[in-house]
Amino acid sequence: MDIMETIRARYSEISSVQKRIADYCLEHPDAASFQKLREFAQTTHTTDATVLKFCSNMGCQGFLAFRRQLQEYVRMRLSPNEKVRMSLARSTDAIDTCRKIIDGEKRGLDMTFQYLDMESFMQIIYRLNHARRIFVAGHHLTRIVADFFLYHLKRIGREAHLVDTSDKKQTCDQLLHATKEDVFVLISIPVYAELTIQLAQHLREAEITSISITDSLTSPVAQACEMSLTCNTEHDVFFNSVSSMIAMIEMLTSGLLLSDRERFLTAQERLERLEEKLGIPQKDQQFVRTDIQRQTLK
Predict the structure, then answer these.
(1) Cβ pair 51, 63 in contact under 8 A
(2) Which of 11, 74, 161, 284 has its C-alpha lying 20 to 30 A from 196's C-alpha?
(3) CB of 210 within 8 A of CB of 225?
(4) Which CATH number fits domain 1-77: 1.10.10.10, 1.10.3720.10, 3.40.50.2300, 1.10.150.20?
């Protein structure tokens, strides 16, 4: 049940003054979702205390929690272009907006790692380490994140393949030879790609390990996947931010690398021999290998 459904369900139980707040939220969720407490109270001709009581009646611990649920409701119902237009209409000062974006990116990273379950994180590292192959699925914006993950996976010597869920034929081709020894990582954020959801459901039915990197455990992809990592993707202007996802992927690949150093060193030696044979520069790979060797010797 989203926040608007909650307001409608509890409408008959609240006072006439609080009904005024409820009516405003139901009629103008986009405006209400970005107002500060004092501004919100003034707009609804109530007091801060009345607004806080209303938030409590809606099951929220404070105005910020209530506003966050409103923002999530609005975000899920706006197209990316509508979100940008709304942000532009709301913004009157470019410098102030940039400061808000910076604060939002910091907050997103803090929230992502503050609630990271390290036990689940290490279980995911274990599954990826024991996978025969790793398939990484992305769609539009998350395709960029998937490519970033693939780059790092290949750099540390893992067999990894892209599943572009904006391409149904390519997705089917990748699924054709997938086995229970493989692991799929599905990267999905609002608006969730229908083919990514279908892929997650198919993998569950086929009993092939699937891991989601998404914005919420309630997302349709997370609900279909065996394991999940959540990242805060809120952004003041655009529909989503992927900063926390990029940081999470760097954590994942670092964990994979450090938990199986010998595998990396063996793959790196083979790569260096191939590159020497083909006349390809080795500077980047030698850098990483030297660092790992230094840690191994400690």
Answers:
(1) yes
(2) 74
(3) yes
(4) 1.10.10.10
